[in-house]
Amino acid sequence: MKLTIPKEYNPVLSVRQTQEAIKYIRDTFQHEFGKEMNLLRISAPLFVEKSSGLNDDLNGTEEPVHFTMKEMQEERIEVVHSLAKWKRFALKQYGFQLHEGLYTNMNAIRKDEELDNLHSAYVDQWDWEKIIAKEERTENVLKQHVRTIFKIIKHMEHEVWYKYPTAVNHLPDQIHFITSQELLDRYPNLEPRQRENEIAKELGCVFIMKIGGKLSNNKKHDGRAPDYDDWKLNGDILFWYEPLQCALEISSMGIRVDEDSLVKQLKIEGKEDRLQYPFHKAIVDRKLPYTIGGGIGQSRLCMLLLKKAHIGEVQASIWPEEMIRTCYENNIQIL
Q: Which of the four, 93, 110, 231, 323, has the lowest number of CB atoms within 10 Å?
């Protein structure tokens, strides 16, 4: 069982106060986020057809929860891992224009997740996607959006402080940028998670860029599906999280593949068979808009702002009995 117990942990807020704070954070953040990023909130599916090619492949090893429907026995239906591909398709279908975008409350099941303080089988995040021009597929545009998201999160710290001054976690004033290769060069003897911890502890908040391809050591910093992010134009937002003494990932995001990078990345991964799917064909045929997008963890944001020791304190999920018992013995209030 992977579980970290902070010394003399004090949740500050009661369970009921925590529930009130969760709602406040979620309501306030999504309002500010939509306004700042020019995004419209829309409805989204909980499951998709496998044949559509729309489900997120994550690292390529996780199996989605799946089932068949009475009226569609021939079709395998998959509970989403995320809406990384679906959002881009929706932007086209719903007639969004340049520099307009959407966000949605995304709920997913990742049954193969290794459960610990930060990881749950239930995933809740704001999935977002925005149309950009082809010539805007640049590192500068990526960084602009990262800085905007950081500004909104920083503003949320002040909002939470106003209502819950004794519970709020004080965040750094700036976000820094580093590529996964630069991170390897800086800490050549450490594993990827150790490198993330070191840089997050040093800088407070960091955006690690260019994730998915192999580095100079012939290894990947982390896995990324080859058919949504452009591996040269993506990254993760990490905060140093003092209660658990580790880096806390709040968002994975990036500029999405175009017709060239899609084919190149599928070839690298040996996944060229996906080019038969409607989604992938639409990209190659330039029938979908060029976009930037990502996901922002709702429970993780609540956890970050409220200094919670376990994600189970801010979401209702399923945990091993031993983990629940150990948490209660150490004043960690699992919902």
A: 93
Domain with residue 46: its CATH number is 3.30.930.10
* Burial class for 273, CB neighbours closer than 10 Å (0-12, 13-18, 19+): exposed
In the annotation, is 259 catalytic? no
Domain enclosing residue 137, as ranges? 15-174+266-329
Amino acid identity of residue 275, one-letter, is L
Q: In this structure, which amino acid lies at residue 138? A: T
User: Is 99 within the bounds of a domain?
Assistant: yes
* Catalytic site includes residue 249: yes
Is residue 256 flagged as an active site residue?
Answer: no
User: Does a structural domain hold residue 97?
Assistant: yes
Catalytic residue among 236, 258, 299, 300: 236
Number of domains present in the structure of the chain: 1
Which of the residues 26, 88, 110, 224 is marked catalytic?
A: 110
Cβ atoms 75, 98 nearer than 8 A: no
Q: Classify 239 as helix, strand or coil.
A: strand
User: Mean per-residue pLDDT for 216-231?
Assistant: 93
Q: Would 235 be classed as within a structural domain? A: no
The answer on pLDDT for 100 being more than 70 is yes
pLDDT tens across 198-223, in order? 999 999 999 999 999 999 999 999 98
Predicted TM-score (pTM) of this structure = 0.91
Collect contacts of 267-272 with beta carbons under 8 A, ≥24 apart.
Answer: 268/213, 268/226, 269/60, 269/226, 271/60, 271/226, 271/227
Kindly list the distances between the CA atom of residue 300 and the CA atoms of 25, 49, 309, in Å, as whole numbers in the listed order.
Answer: 11, 28, 11
252, 261, 298, 315: the catalytic one is 252
pLDDT digits (tens, 9 = 90+) for 304-326: 999 999 999 999 999 999 999 99
- pLDDT single digits (tens) 156-215: 999 999 999 988 889 999 999 999 999 999 999 999 999 999 999 999 999 999 999 999
